[in-house]
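Let us begin with a simple case.
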Amino acid sequence: MEAGSLALTQVKDATLQHDSEAALLDACRRQDVGAFETLYRQHGSKMKSVAYHVVGNRQDAEDAVQDAFVKAFKSIGGFRGDSSIGGWLCRIVINASYDVLRKRQRETALIAEPERSGPCSSMRMAINQAMKRLNPKHRMVFMLYEVEGLKHTEVAAAMDIPEGTSKAWLFEAKRELKRMLSEVQK
């Protein structure tokens, strides 16, 4: 059997072995690489999206996610299980994203899409500009809750804030977006 086929078989076996989050977590704590691959397949795309919303471009987002999963691999033994593993990974990705921003000395921003003519493109540009003007913490809660579909408990765990603060910041973000977008329409 070739090495590539063997590795693929091991990954499939790892997926079948972990019928619950607890079993997957136990395997990860034993530094089972196949379990981490399963964890990455389950959470990687969401983590890339979260990182993208922090750093503003795909390359930096992928760097942040890679750094986050390396950190998770090294520190999984310290995960107490107070939150879901997805929430824990999200917190690590957010921190890694901020590290990437600091390292590259950039401001958190959403990349404006290429200009297209028509009313949809002007509204998209207005939304992007309004998002850039939001308080970064409010923007992150908005993105995690509205775009990524996390629950307030998960947002709170990911951002290390109380659940009530997550709700309040989401309310503020929506109120500010509504105000800014209504100014654009006038």
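The second case is a distinct protein. As before, the sequence precedes its structure tokens.
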Amino acid sequence: MENNNKMKKVLALIAMATLMSCASKPKGVETTNWLGKKVTLVSQNPEEGTHTAERKNHTSLSLQATNSLHPVTMYDPEKMVIVYEYTKKSSAESHADDFYREEIYFEIPAEAFKKTYKDAALQDVKLIFGKHCYCKGEAGYYRITEGMLKVDHKEDNTCVSLTFKAPVNSELHTIEFTVE
């Protein structure tokens, strides 16, 4: 009987620790996106630019492809699109082709859930990487097929941890953030 009580206490502590892992205030750099929503960046990403994330409620991701892949968002009350963006700061001198931006897009169900996606399963969330720059042969959108995405989605925030291999050179390889 005494061992049974100890076991219940241990299980209660484990359950509490699990609940607190994403529910507690995430450690990292807190910023605000253009919508005024809080974004907490946890991962160490390139510092010579700006990072932001956004949750697009009631939105799904359509992958339009003619000659190249292009993500298009559309209204869908049962889906949500998460967008992460890194924009590298331009040099002090003004050049017409002095820009660099990387984006990550993926689609998740609107209801709360916690799940991990790996390699081929990344297509379940339509994980897309975009590279925008004056870099011939590399600019454009690409499907991500190698990596691991962990999503803990709640009504008030979404915690994301992504490690991936882009099909072209990229500055981002690992991102971790929470967005309202």
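The CA atoms of residues 130 and 141 lie 4 Å apart. Helices lie at 2-23.
Keep these points in mind for the review questions at the end of the chapter.
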